[in-house]
Structures are given as C-alpha cells and as structure tokens.
Amino acid sequence: MSAILGTETWVAIVDDDEPIRRALQRLLRAHGINATAFHSARDYLTRAPSAPACICLDVYLHDEMTGLDLAEQLRARGTATPIIFMTGQDRSELAPAIRDAWPGVILRKPLDSDLLLELVRHHARVFAERASA
Amino acid sequence: MMGHESSSARAARSAPALRQATGWQAGPFLISTLPPGPRQRWIARALVIVLAAAFLGTVAYRDVQLQRYDAFVPIANTIICLNDVITAALLYAQFSVTRSRALLALASGFLFKSLTMIPHALTFPGAFAPSGLLGARVQTTAWLYMTQHLVFVLSAVAYTLLRERRTESSDDDGSAAISIGVAVGGVSASIAAVTWLFIVGTDLLPPIMADSIHTTAVFHEFGTQLLLLEAVVSIVVFRRRATSMIDLWLKVAMCSWLIETFFQVIIRSRFSLVFYVSRSMGVVSSSFVLIVFLSESLMLHRRLVLAVLGREQEREGHRTAIEIVVGALAHELRQPLTAILLNEKACARLLSTSPQSPEDVSASLDDIRDSALRAGEIIDSVRTMFDAPGAQSRAAVDGNALVREAVELMRLDLEAHHVSVEFDLAPQALSIRAHRGQLLEVLLNGLKNAIESLATITGRRRDIGVRTLPLGANGIAITIEDSGAGVDIRVRRRVFEPFYTTKPQGMGLGLSICESIVSAHGGALTLEPGSPHGATLRIELPGSWESDVAMLERPRPCVPASEGARSEVPSNAARPARRRTSFVT
Lengths: 133, 585
Prior knowledge:
The structure holds 2 protein chains of 2 kinds. Helix content of chain A is 43%, strand content 17%. By secondary structure, chain A is of the alpha/beta class. In chain A, strands 2-1-3-4-5 form a 5-stranded parallel β-sheet, with helices on both faces. Chain A has helices at residues 18-30, 41-47, 67-76, 95-101, 113-132; strands at residues 11-14, 35-38, 54-58, 83-87, 105-108. Chain A is globular, with a radius of gyration of 14 Å. The relative contact order of chain A is 0.17. Chain B folds into 3 domains: 43-310, Rhopdopsin 7-helix transmembrane proteins, CATH 1.20.1070; 311-352 and 359-385, Helix Hairpins; 395-582, Histidine kinase-like ATPase, C-terminal domain (Heat Shock Protein 90, 2-Layer Sandwich). Chain B starts with a helix and ends with a helix. The relative contact order of chain B is 0.07. At the A-B interface, α1 of A face α11, α12 and α14 of B.
C-alpha cells in the first residue's frame, strides 16, 4: 500500500464484499488511480489517514454501521468528501430516501465501470486542483 | 398490487370466455347445473305432500261458498306476479351464463305466468271495477287464466325436451341480451295480444262463465282437457330424474299446477272455498320456488366467493415466498457478477498497458473463477430450498445456521424497514432432522410477519430478537420476538386458521402453512404476546430421537398384553432397532 500523505490524491473503497473490494481496487489501480479498500465503516474511520478524493461506498454494509450511517457521520463532521454510493439492492424502497439526503450518484450493481471510472477521475481532478490551489 | 389487477381482470372476463376457460357444463356452480341434495329433495317432497293434502282436504267441501273479498285476487296476483317475475329474471340470468335454450324457454314461461297476472287482476270483476277494467267482458278473466296455465305447461315441456339436447343446442353465437330482449318482448306482446283478443273477441269463444261468479259446463270441459294435457306433460317432466335444482323445483311447480287444474275441473263458482285454496296454493308454491332459487343462488355465490378468495390467498402466499427468494437471489447474484465485471475491466486494462503484470492478470482471473463458482453455489442453495417436500429429503439441519441463513435472506426487507436483528443463539450446535427448505420457509414467514408488524411502529426501536434454545433431549426451540404492533389475544387463537389474516393485504395462508410444516416435523408453533409489546413466534421442534419414537408410538393403540400379545411383538422388536439407528443419524 502506498504511503498516503495529507495532500495525496487517493480513493477509498468501502464494501463488505471482499471479491468486489479487490476487483474495484484492481480496476482503479490499473487505471493509475491510487485506491485503498476498507471492509467496514468502522475500518475506514480508524484506518483512513487523510481525506480521500472520493469514497466508493456500499449503501448497506453488513455491520452495525451502514454505508448511510458513515455518510451521515462524515457530513456531521463537516467533511465535504464526495461519495459514490453503490448498491446491490433491487427494490426502490430506500432509494428515494437516499436520493433526497444525498443528491450525488448511486450506482447499481453490477456497476457501470466506465461511468464509475469517469466519476472517480473527475473527483480526483477536482481534489488535485483544490490541493494545488 | 398484482393480486388486485388479476382479480379485476378476472371480474371483467366475459361469460363466454369464462365458460370456455372452465369447461363449465360439469361445474356445479349454478342452480341450473347444481345437483339437488337429499335435503332439497326432502323439502320438495314435503311441499308437494302439503299441497296434495290441502287439495284432498278441500275436495269434499267443493260446494262451500265463502264471503266475497274483492281485494283477494289483486293481492294474490301481485304476490305471484312479483315472485314469478323475479324467478324469471333469475332464470334469464342463468341463461345468459349457460346459453341453454331450455332455460330461456322456462324463464319465458315464468315471465308469461307472471305478467298475465296483471291483465288478470285488472279485468277481474269486482277487483278494481265492478265489471273489471280495460273494458273486460265476463269471459275475459277466465280465458286469461286458462291461457296462462296452458303456456306455462308448454314452457315446462319445452324446457324438458330442450334440456335433453342441451349440449348441441347451447350455441355461443349472438348476445344473450338480444335473446332475452326478444323473449321478453315476445312474451309481453303475446300477453297484450291475448288480452285484447279475450276482450274484443270474447263472443267468438264458447262461454265459460255463466256470470261474474259462476262457471259453466264448458269451463269444466276445458279444465278437464287442460288437466289431461298437464298429465301428459307431467309424465314427460317426471319421467326424468331431477339433475339440477331447477329440474327439482320445476317438478314441484308442476305438481302445484296440476292440483290447481284439478280445482279448475271441480270449481263451481268464484269465492268458494276451493277458489280461495287454489289461489293460495299458487301463492305458496310460487313463493317457495323463488325462495329456494334465491337461497340456493346465494349459497352457491358464497361458496364461489370462498373458493375464489382461497385461491387468491394461496397464490398471494406463493407470490410473497417467491418474491422473497427472487429478491434475495437477485441481490446475492449481483455481488459476484459485479466482481466478475470489474475484474474483466481490470484485466482488459492490465493487458493493454505496458509494462504488463501477468501476476495481476492471473490473480484477476482467479477471482473471476471464484466469483462464478460462488454464483453457482447461490443458485444451488435456492434449488435445495425448493426441493421436493417429503421425508426422504429430511437431513440433519443445524438450527443456528438455519436461523442465520433466514435472516440473511431477509436482509433487504430488514434494511428497507430499518429493522435490526439481535441474535441470541445457543452456544452448542443444535442439530435436528428436518426438511431444510420447509423450515427455512417457516422462519422466513415468521421474520416477514415480524417485519410487517414493526413497519407501523414509530417512536421505539424496531427490533427483532431471534433466539435458539435446546429443547428436551435433542430438540430445538426457535423464537422470533418483535416489538411490533403485537397480536390481540382474541386474534391469537385464530391466526393459524387458513384464510385468517389481520393484515390489509392478506396472505392468510402463511402461518397456517407454517403450522402444518412444523407439526409435520412433530413440533408445535405458538404465537404469544410479547412484553411489554409485540409478539413472539415460538417454533418447537423435537429432536430426531424423540420425534422418531413419537411417530412410532402414536398410531399404535394400547393393546392389553393378554389379547394382543402377537401384534405387540413386531412393535417391541422394531422399537429398539429404530432407536439405535436414529442415534446414528
């Protein structure tokens, strides 16, 4: 794992499914994007050394703290980190609620990897510009 | 939602389509096709006996003249008219479904009988005007009465004869409404024509009334001829065994008609005892026929409604079980598919860049294979869940693992309703011999009910407690405890009855299926109110050893040793052997 400094551009992956975590990390790295994976919200909060360019966050983490909880907590702390939500959910029951609270992007699994890459690149660019400014 | 659509779609389905779809002739769903039961036959016989007794009791007093009540005929006619017009409407409705021409003929006969009562009452001397309304002559009313009898008898013949050829004559072409319209129009027109004829052309016909009270010899002559005709017709009608409610009650109507015609033969004058009795008999028999048709129709309707509801709820139950599985399956399959697609993209990227890293590519391919295998396992697990039921597929099941699996399958529902699950599982492995898929179904149902009762709760935590406990020597108890709306004590006794549901959307079969599954495993399912609120579903499953012994002992009656020594030998021999084998499994 590469050293993560305060201003380094990196992307966080938070998903409880290990194969997905690994595959996503592999894809981002193959495209030259520095990505670190976390298996839970708690794991992210304890291990993330600095603010990432964005978080690819699974909505329903199978844990006491869900992806939504993590997003809420980050917002409560005043963190402006962009979040790309990922969900394997089939039903639309919760989707409107998430959309209202988080007007960002929610990607359905199986993920549209081109769109995901484009979004991640965009966030990385914005992050880098802001860091250099 | 889906159930709603299908029910309204079914309601909109036209009668011919229904007939084609159900292959209908055989279906005992109408009073025209329902075979009469012994009770109905008994009632019919009793009524005929009462009518015959009334007749025989009256014959001796044929000369007794009673007081003249001018209001009697209008009242009796009104009752018979209303009874018969409703009966006719019922029969026309039957025709519109079955398209049996026999029914059309009979309905028209009843309609004729009903509507003739109107000019009959209007022209009856003394009823509305001293010599009757519509410019009636002395003969008019009596001729109408004769015609009415004749036409009704002919319609009974038509019904009986057409009924024999029912299969060929019931054609689907043309609308029922048009046929009924033509029949009603024809009946009304012919009554108008006949009335007019008997008013204007009465002088051309032989006189059957001497004056407004007394009959003539011609009257009795006609009555006798009518009686002979009816006797012939009755043979046609009575020769056949009644195969439907209508057949049976047509026979009753014919009997009553026959008796009334007997009265025609002996009647000397209006307002005699015979006159009053015969008219009253007409009122009684027409009322009876109508009441029986109505009550039987309503009973059939009730039975149909129950059958339709039952089917609806059964399908609803299946649908929700399938919904759970499909939802879970979709979610589960998306995970490996996502990993596969991401790995594929990564591979493509890795292979197109230099320097290439073969280790990354091969790791990626390994992950693709693992994910594909995982998808296969998910599908296999669903297949085992829907495995054919039966004792053969019972196997050792770990209660704790099963509970976890059920909760995992319900994860989406739990999350969608913000319900959290707290496990309190027994530390030791709890293994029972059971049909895995069926027990899973029970747990899924229990969890689903708990979630639904929690869905309306605000202001307190939405919790489900799932607990496993050892039960007896080798059994297991599983409880699903929710803090939801709870179960009313009164309701509690009934929730296991099929079709009983407190939920607005239905699915009453859920718990009753669960109970039958659990009792098939020798266990018990109970629903208790929780404290301070909510409900606890308790599933008790005896261990394999206990359930085997229980099954071995239950069907055997207790036989005294002296008498049943021989029969007890095999059971005694079988028991220890059974015990040993079940220890092994």
